[in-house]
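Per reviewer request, we include the raw input and output of the structure prediction for the construct analysed in the revised manuscript.
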Amino acid sequence: MSDYLPLEVILEILKRLPVKSLVRCRSVCKTWNSLINNPSFISTHLQSALSEPDSHLFFLKLLKDDKEKYFLHFDNDDFDEFKQLHFPFNGCLPSFVVVGSCNGLVCLSCSSQDALNLILWNPSVQKYIRLPKPNMTCLSDNAYLILGFGFDSRTNDYKLLIVAGERGETLTEAYLFSLNANSWKSVTAISPNYAFEGEISSAFVNGTIHWLGFQRGNDGGFRNVVLGFDISTEEFLVISLPENLSGLCPLDLSIMKYEESSIAVLKRDWEDGEQLDMWVMKEYGVVGSWKKVLHLTDQSGGLLPTILGFRKNGEVLLHVDGGEMASLDLNCQQLEHLGIEAEAAFVDSYVESLVLLDKGVDSGAFEAFSCLSCVGANLLYDAIEALF
């Protein structure tokens, strides 16, 4: 075909193909292989996929029968399963935590033997990169870590932020990883003077990684805020919370992404039976736009749902008591069960992409050593990745 069609036409056709077809098309000829592996084409294909209304998927990590399973689901009325993902990292390291998903890349973290293992994985092309270890001194039993993952659209780079702090103390260290540079750098010197408690969540929205922090007043009270780190300008920022949340115990609060453009903060307390409130920032960056959109109570001794994320139709994905996923319409408070059972669940938005196709290691290389001990396997992984 390449002998009869101009290169521009071939590229126009290829960028409309799904990822699975493109991976196969690399075997057609050397020219196609070179085109599809080109970073410029990978970026063009991603932008094309993001513009497709039907490309919006959800990445699910489900715990079933004490086994972790991974799936992609359509964000349609029935929340249909698109496919089950092959997870290649089972067997060697303990359970992975999903830091986040961005443009088809899933960031995974796992702590074992006093080491922090970090992996960027594209399940659609079965490629991964194991990140080098950050040169942090604050990786002890008394340290809390916040990890945030996102995409820098200015430099076409994927970045991971690690914020570390001792229990109850202000932020101690902050390091930023760049995939383009394949290295870490310290951003501790410019970090704000706020503390955080526990292994808290983060949310990547509008080019900024968000988490919750607090300061203690002279009276011992709390002042909670949303902290942010813009991964393009590499600057920290502070967003005020509504007064109803500002003075609460930090352990009662958590943050998450609201749709694809803003943030939400959840509040749980157990004073008069369990209560759950959700506040969303309707207009990102505008403090006056905070609005409470959900209030749930339970005085029967049962468990209130866990909020997993937001669908494109505005409904909220939940993991309800009894171990099933459900979708809640915030307007009419109607709950629809989705027929997905799990002991625990993690959900994030997802789009299939070719990211890492040109630089990642085939995940089969990881599996080949999955039966080895972590210490021995890590040495072999380093040797394998050095070849690529």
